[in-house]
Fold each of these.
Amino acid sequence: MKTWISIPNQSDFTIYNIPFGIYSTHSTKPRVCIAIGNQILDLVAARKLGIFKGLKIKKSVLKNAFLNDFIALGKEKTTKVREIIQKELCDENSILRNNEKVFALQSEVQMHLPVSIGDYTDFYSSIEHATNVGMMFRDPDNALLPNWKHLPVGYHGRASSIIVSGENIHRPMGQVLPPNSDSPVYKASSRVDFELEMGFIIGQNTNLGEKINTANAENYIFGQVLFNDWSARDIQKWEYVPLGPFLAKNFGSSMSPWVVTMEALAPFKVQGPEQDPKVLPYLEYDGLKNYYIKLEVAIQPKDNPETIVSHSNFKYMYWNMSQQLAHHTSNGCNIKIGDVMASGTISGKEPNSYGSMLELSWGGQKPITLKNGEKRTFIEDFDTVIMRGYSEKGAIRVGFGEVRSQLLPAL
């Protein structure tokens, strides 16, 4: 496709992407938009010009602080909206071309959390990550727990503390067990970590008791985002037995503002890892269910350049999104539009592809050297963590932009 709009080289937001988000300005209340190049297209203004006339979309759906009502229109309509925008941006005579008021520079607008999140589930689906953590904290010869290869391990997290890229987060306080001690102390975590993840946004409601199978699971997924699931490793080590993470996780997670649709990601489907032993029938699937998405993580100390510390890829996931959703609903658990489900830390086989500082520094034993000469085992106060991701195939590039957040001192 060739568009009349100027798109910088290596832009994540090409004509093949058209991701959805929520923006505002000092004079414009939050509303639905799409990203194209370094600009946004206001869908309220585009609707006013009549380009969606045949779809009968209410103004209130687009003049809205969240995407939930838009997503609720269903994929038949939301996909049509995306296709109409692509057509208009390729049509030299488009009504959009002579209406500058429908566009704004991304650098001049405020982006918001794209969906109202009712529930949040975090999985643990990278075999490389699970193996690394098992080697560090359990038995190197039996790193994976007996259930790991039989089901997508997950837990329900806190939705209220999920923030959009650009919002900062404070170092959490919690109980920590000092070395060679039998009693914990309450203190600021000294082992704050990032977790490189992808999140997917639920696009359809289900009823209590209803199950989703792997064949139709992607019909229930609207799109994906970048996701940094912040962790406090020292708090987690003390609290996680027997019920898993609590204060070590619920202090915050950061999410990118742009939701890239499953339709935009369709060209990048790939084969996933071989699953051995064979999974139970309800987790079996046909076709390509993994996605080739290049990922990177950078650490930027205050007033210093960033250093890329990890190069990973979403293709590594042992358990794919369809299996995660099938398992999540296999007991009849219902899901709702706007729910977020995160992949779990995405690590590859090579040390430079690990998706957390816990692995990159191997529990603090192997410090990472940054460009300014400073060393890191975990994230320090005023460090900014930046995650980026994109897919590329020939001339087609589809990206997520970035999710960034600075770690501030404990309150």
Amino acid sequence: MKTDDLIAALAADTAPTDAGTLRRSAGLALIPAALLVLAGVILSLGLRPDLMVAMGGPTFWAKAAYTAALACAGFWLLDRAGRPGADVHVPLAVFGAVVVIAILSGAVSLMTTPEAARVEALMGQSARVCPTNIAGLSLLAAPLILFAVRGFAPLRPALAGAAAGLMLGGLAATLYGLHCPEHTAAFVAVWYTMGMAIPVVVGAVIGRWVWRW
């Protein structure tokens, strides 16, 4: 019998995992994780000086809506991927739809920007550090989340790890917006997405170790 078949057979004989308990464990861990990331933003990067003014405009909230939506999609996907037999297709579809909408919005925004200003709209002032800042902030909270979800029993550990990374990346990117002054759709679609992709990849790798059978 192949290893994958054995795992599937064991999962089939296992009583259904209490979804509420797992979801509550991961959800509660997000509170200290968010506080830790927020402390990292304030102490290591600093809040943007025009934060109160920026919060009065739509671009600040549009950026936050994108990153928060991916954090929620990651939480949803982790909840499903962490329980044997749970369907993951819907959260995966939501995740894909959110990313596609962001990319299309960024592309349309860039095409409608005057040619002379396109490089600035795409690169802003912090393209080189944005992805690494988001990834670094997500790593601050990673131990808290991984400890909270250690009781999950995913059939696909890499997918569960990627979901945890997406949740962390979305959380970190949302709070990073309190520091980052960039606001163009093109910048967010490229560099914020890249920053969130890093913990997704790292999470997929770590997931194989955290939930090894």
Amino acid sequence: MEETRKIAVDFDGTIVENAYPRIGKPMLFAFDTMKKLQQKGFRLILWTYRHGKSLEEAVEFCKANGVEFYAVNQSFPEEEFTQDVSRKINADLFIDDRNIGGMWDWGLIYQELIGEQAPTPRKKKSLFAFLKR
């Protein structure tokens, strides 16, 4: 039986634009990609510096955008922090804006991990489009 793969995902600068301690705008394709990864059976772990109220806000923001995490700042939901256990998250992949070489575009992450072309972003209609008729 194949074990479910886990992906640890950073929040600020990765899922959303970096505006810490506020929550920045969502990165293009971030939520689409994470939802698709979950549909494909990946377990997502939110792995972030945030704690306390700012962590709760980040978790709720993601939930409001359709993503609930397998675990938050821990390797599995039941894990309890003790001094004899490393704080390193046990994951197969890490998505973070602090990678050597920088953050991959979420469209590229989508293609690489899902094996499909990322969906085309919808263009916003101009408020003045009716004048161009």
